[in-house]
Design brief:
Helix content of chain A: over 70%
CATH topology of the largest domain in chain B: ABC transporter involved in vitamin B12 uptake, BtuC
Low-confidence stretches of chain A: none
Helix content of chain B: 55-70%
Number of helices of chain A: 16
Radius of gyration of chain A: 23 Å
Strand order of the largest sheet of chain A: 1-4
Oligomer: heterodimer
Distance between the termini of chain A: 29 Å
Mean pLDDT of chain B: 78
Structural class of chain A: mainly alpha
Largest interface: A-B, 43 and 43 residues
Number of domains of chain A: 2
Strand content of chain A: under 5%
Largest sheet of chain B: 5 strands, antiparallel
Radius of gyration of chain B: 32 Å
Shape of chain A: globular
Number of strands of chain B: 7
Structural class of chain B: mainly alpha
CATH architecture of the largest domain in chain B: Orthogonal Bundle
Number of strands of chain A: 4
Number of domains of chain B: 2
Shape of chain B: elongated
Chain lengths: ~400, ~575
Amino acid sequence: MISGFVFRALEGKIVVAIAILLVIAILVPALNLLTPPDSALHIPTYAVSLFGKYLCYALLALALDLVWGYCGILSLGHGAFFALGGYAMGMYLMRQIGSRGVYGNPVLPDFMVFLNWKELPWFWHGFDWFVFAMAMVLVVPGLLAFIFGWFAFRSRVNGVYLSIITQAMTYALLLAFFRNDMGFGGNNGLTDFKDILGFPVQADGTRAVLFAMSAIMLAFCLLIASAIVRSKFGKVLVGVRDAESRVRFLGFRVENIKLFTFVVSAMMAGIAGALFVPQVGIINPGEFAPANSIEVVVWTAVGGRGTLIGPIIGAVLVNAGKSFFTGAFPEIWLYALGGLFIAVTLFLPKGIVGTVQHGLKARKAMKAAVEAEKGRDEAAPVAQAQAAE
Amino acid sequence: MGPRSDPLPALNEVGERELRRRRQSFFRSQGFRRGGTFRPADRGEIMTLKSLLQAFLACLILSFAAPSFAQSDPKPLIDALAKADFNEAEKLLGQIAASGDARVVPALNAFAEGDLYFRKSDNLVFIAKTAGSGFELIDPLTGASAGQAAKNAVTKIKVNNNLRRVIRSAMGGLTLLSADRAVRLQAADAVLRSPSPENLDLVEAALAKETDKEVKARMEEARAVSVLSSDRSIDEKRGAIETIKNLGGRNSLGILNSVSGSIDAGLKGDLDAAIAAIESEQQLWDMAQNVWYGLSLGSVLLLAAIGLAITFGVMGIINMAHGEMVMLGAYSTFVVQDVIRDNAPNLFDWSLAIALPVAFLVTGAVGLVIERGVIRFLYGRPLETLLATWGVSLILQQTIRSIFGPTNQEVGNPSWMSGSFPVGGMTITWNRMWIILFSMSIFVALLVLLKKSAFGLNMRAVTQNRRMASSMGIKTPWVDAFTFALGSGIAGIAGVALSQIDNVSPNLGQSYIIDSFMVVVFGGVGNLWGTLVGALSLGVLNKFLEPSVGAVLGKILVLVLIILFIQKRPRGLFALKGRAVEA
């Protein structure tokens, strides 16, 4: 049954996308590590980290697309799940610093020593253990999504209202994490990481492996998302998006369907955050900013919501654009981003991938029609069947 | 209550901080520099010097033994400061104060600020002002210039915190006898704030001569607080306690608490009763103050949200650029004030009145352009309007940043917005007062516009049944456009008001957008009354949570409460009823 679930996921385009991601996962680190620095094929380490960051964003966009594109829940708080996953990873990395911090305390991270704390708060226990930390990367965002979704979907908060309260959620978390008393480093967040699983975070090899992990996790999540979307459950999911009341009247428990998707999506966002933190070397409350979450929505919208490849392309394209613009013309970036928001909603409501798909379909239909014109008698039934697709 | 050793035993932290603040503001008003403020750390020092103060007191009493104030010439006394050590200086100060000559005030001021110097050649004391590489010497009594002196020709007369305190007492006494009513009032206030028994005789002398009713009442209170720490009879002290109790306020509470350790046993009951009475009164006033702060915050929220109540509430457009409209309004105020400053400075008090229509027109026009250019293509797709308007907001922010720069702009307060006035035990600042009145009048105006005008009728018709309204000949696209422009214009007007209390920067709008949405969603979409109740109740709730859990946690709690509230009532406090609501 599970193999069937997975096999159904492996529709043509998804297979290609996963294959490309896996090739990237091997090729980029290899080009970074194995070629000499002056070679034309060499990829510098900073670029590896940068692309690794894009892949994390792509995973976040994919997570958002699962709830927005397929379930119609526009979450303006996905940045919160991303940041929570990042904080879980950050806590692990903080504990790995050990006595190498500025204050040299073997147990307490620097900021706690600075705040004159005497012992580790209870919620920091266990984070020195990698497996536990990785479990928390999934559990914390998942739990928050579960609690939040449990209440919200049960009382049928939807549409705009849901968007606004998800925004309020991430805003509340932003304010909370800014507080020093929370025990997460306050304003400065968690940084100065030394090593991960015994390997130095800054080393080229570690960065290459982190990149590969990002690509592999993205491929894996793409597979999961594709499996969900293409299963029977996925059909119902799209039903919820398009006509929620009807699906409810047909006897489905809409709130459970939404809740499941929301939790899965939050976990994916958490994974993205956890992979993001060691590659950029810092996690601070700024990641909770509502503006960040809205930006994720744009990546998804640009790439094409309701397609699984779209958000990945969108996230990479927009962020590459951002890197380019903020470097070359910092003044223009906000104009460009703002213009992109407007242009995409007005002219490309389906996004890049959606529009291309639409165009391909239209061309196919046109070709079929032309065929039908040519040989009306013998080809007509076939062409009609094709056109009907 | 604490033992005698602690001069201010049972002061709670707030009380102490408040006292410190008042002390400091008094110092500043007297021209003292910040370094010379009276910090709690100085308390110990003052205690050890209590005996010295008593010497000073003796001098004072001696000098007041004579019924009239001897107008002895203080000049030799001031000159004697040149060679005096701290102890001698203190005695000299007592004698200077005893002269009762108001001309010594500038010299005392200069002494406290460390501007008093003596000339090495003849040991004469002068007030020195830096002039070029040397000093300009000023005669301490007449204020006439006494020529220049090189830096090394004069020596500074040293001063310490204890001397500053003595100077302050002396000046308080001297100014109590000033011919200027305002100065006397200020001096009485100063004694009231920091009572000391050594001032008592002076206060009583001044009281006997005082004719002005208000000043007399103030001095009466000042006398009462001084009596408490003196060695007067029990009956006199009982009367004083009564006077202080009637005075009320945190300061009185502090005074009563500070003497409760040293008071005669017979007065303990009176004292405790007075303290309890003031405390309960104080609690009531604190509550009232909290409500006031809450209303003030609520009216700010109302201002920010009321435009949104129209665009989001009535039209169903999620306008993420709403905050930027507020920001544009604030910047319009800045530009208007700039123009007025350059061209007609005498109109400055009218700048806000001029800025209001300007801001309304500017933001209304921007709103119209946004509606015609972007939003009209997106009706029926609320989530996409959200994205497009967010894009608009980014562009507006960046535009303002490019034109005016990313830093805060200085927007001035007209004179009628500055200052404050006391109501019982609380202080009301004029700008908050005006903002509350302003937001209420905007609310009423908007309500009248919606309910009574032809445009309001059209607007409501289109909201309720677009096709029917269209059939009746209403140009629905233009109603949409002008409704959006109206909502934006109101946001602009809100920006004018908010420019008075917030930093005017390109990010101004960002800080209001989430709060505004919360207010509208909490109050109930499509209902102006809901917005009013939502804004005020969120404001008051916030301010009541603040003292107990802190500002940030209070805000978080409010957000969580709203999220929970939405679960219970997904359509807000005052939901529109009917079938049309469910999409």
